[in-house]
Amino acid sequence: MRVTAAPGLQVPKEGRPRAYITDAAFIDVPDSAYYRRLVACGDLVEPDSAKTAAKSTKKGGE
Q1: Distance between CA atoms of 10 and 54, rounded to whole angstroms?
Q2: CB neighbourhood size of 21 (10 A)
Q3: pLDDT (0 to 100) of residue 48
Q4: pLDDT tens, per residue, the chain with 62 residues
Q5: What whole-number distance in Å separates Cα of residue 28 and Cα of residue 59?
Q6: Helical (H) or strand (E) element with 59
Q7: I want to staple 34 with a disulfide (CB 3.0 to 4.6 A). Which of 9, 14, 38, 45 is the partner?
């Protein structure tokens, strides 16, 4: 699965607590319970979610 961190966050990678996922770019991670939990709580964002969030933010700012 492809994810990026929510804007302004650094999220530790599974099994590598000193390596972080940032909001700089999307990366591939395993489809595990750890990453699914982070997506569900909003700390990580999948590409489809990022497009939806950008559109809703754009509409709210107009």
Answers
A1: 19
A2: 22
A3: 85
A4: 999 999 999 999 999 999 999 999 999 999 999 999 999 999 999 998 666 666 555 555 55
A5: 29
A6: helix 47-61
A7: 14
DSSP per residue, 4-44: EEPTT--EEETTEEEEEE-SSS-EE----HHHHHHHHHTSE
- The torsion angle over the Cα atoms of residues 25, 4, 53 and 42, rounded to 10 degrees, is -160
Instruction: Give the residue carrying structure tokens 């395993």.
Output: 30
What tokens does 23 get? Answer: 């909001």
Full-model pTM: 0.77
The residue type found at 22 is T
